[in-house]
Amino acid sequence: MTVRELITLGERELAAAGAENAKGDSRQLYSHVTSLTYAEIFICYDNTVSDRTKREFMKLLGRRASGEPLQYITGKQDFMGLTFRVSPSVLIPRPETELLVENALNLIEKKMKLEPSINRNGGCAGRSEENEHARNVRILDLCCGSGAIGVSLAKLASETANVRGVEVCCCDISGAALEVAERNARLNGVKPEFRRGDLFEALGSQALGKERCTEHDVRNGGNRSQHCGSNRSRHCGSGGRTCGGEGENHAGSDKQGDFDLIVSNPPYIESSLIPKLRIEVSGHEPMEALDGGEDGMDICRRIIASAHKYMKKNGVLLMEIGYNQKQALLNVINTDGHYIEPHCLKDLSGRDRILIAYAAY
Fold it and tell me: What is the 3-state secondary structure (H, E, C) of the chain?
């Protein structure tokens, strides 16, 4: 049997099994088995396939035909031009989520232009001083899963003008997911901090939000140095700050709270809809990364209720949401009262996908 015949056989079997991209999946499986590029496969189309290659290909083909996602079979997925390892412990990164990362990068660049650093004499740094006086950007990635969002931002945001360093904290309730995320950070050469816990609880005792700091200020005459941000034993990236425990606003400092951006792709699918999804999703991807409760918005509401406590003034919340959840979540944000300029961006299919809001104070 030739390479062409084997790939064609795979295509037919996958098409019969209902695979959406039978031809592409068959080629990727052969590429994975042989470690050949598509160009190399094309060159050897008429070569005879070894028995070993055929056996391995047919084994993986059976897994794919049964509904197992291709990404779990190959163990990888490309996202934002980077390669990420994936396993059944994490949601497979989707192209739609790249919209969140792209807009986060745009907002970082915008913030750096609108918030010039302070030079040694207390004035705004001029253009010639921009690199010397650039500041760090602090990002919190909630429900990080494979780390696709946080790792991508840690890798790509450092290329933004006036960014001295990128401090990223990735949080997830799943220890298995965090292991995958840590591996992806090493694979892509970045060093976020990883915390395990339920949303903001992952930040632990170091995550002193603005309200707790304010109470301490009243009791201690405005001196925040004793408790707010005093525990610095662990750090985000290389910036030298704790992951969640700033909450300070010292004179001459750029610290106005905690994070410049909070980003999240939380579970947002309605519980009743999950069994109706494709078998690749409902039968293989982790339920805790999919199930958003009865209306799909349980986790989204919890994030909105607390995110402002961990954001700098004018910090940005970016959250991926379901296509039919825009108005309900905008109502939640407007009722909450801690955010301004809430709006939603559409994905390439024209569906509402990314919710954005700014911390009012």
Answer: CEHHHHHHHHHHHHHHCCCCCHHHHHHHHHHHHHCCCHHHHHHCCCCECCHHHHHHHHHHHHHHHCCCCHHHHHCEEEECCEEEECCCCCCCCCHHHHHHHHHHHHHHHHHHHHCCCECCCCCECCHHHCCCCCEEEEEEEECCCCCHHHHHHHHHHHHCCCEEEEEEEEEECCHHHHHHHHHHHHHCCCCCEEEECCHHHHHHHHCCCHHHHHHHHHHCCCCCCCCCCCCCCCCCCCCCCCCCCCCCCCCCCCCCCCEEEEEECCCCECHHHHHHCCHHHHCCCCHHHCECCCCCCHHHHHHHHHHHHHEEEEEEEEEECCCCCHHHHHHHHHHHCCEEEEEEEECCCCCEEEEEEEECC
Enumerate the β-bridge partners of residue 345. 354
Cβ proximity of 114 and 163 under 8 Å: no
* Long-range contacts of 83-86, Cβ-Cβ distance < 8 Å, separation of 24 or more: 83/187, 83/188, 84/146, 84/147, 84/148, 84/151, 84/184, 84/187, 84/188, 85/146, 85/180, 85/183, 85/184, 85/187, 86/146, 86/180
> 208 burial class (0-12, 13-18, 19+ CB within 10 angstroms)?
buried
Q: Locate 163 and state its tokens.
A: 């960014």
Furthest-apart CA atoms within the chain: distance in Å: 82
pLDDT score recorded for residue 125: 40
Cα angle 64, 70, 74; round to 5: 110
pLDDT digits (tens, 9 = 90+) for 118-171: 333 333 444 334 444 456 789 999 999 999 999 999 999 877 656 667 889 999
Give the integer Cα–Cα distance in Å for 52 and 40: 19
Q: What's the pLDDT score for residue 137?
A: 84
Model confidence pLDDT, tens digit, residues 342-359: 999 999 999 999 999 999
Domain boundary assignment for the chain: 3-66, 82-115+135-206+255-359
Give the Cα-Cα-Cα angle 171, 203, 341 (nearest 5 degrees). 75
Name the architecture of domain 82-115+135-206+255-359: 3-Layer(aba) Sandwich (3.40)
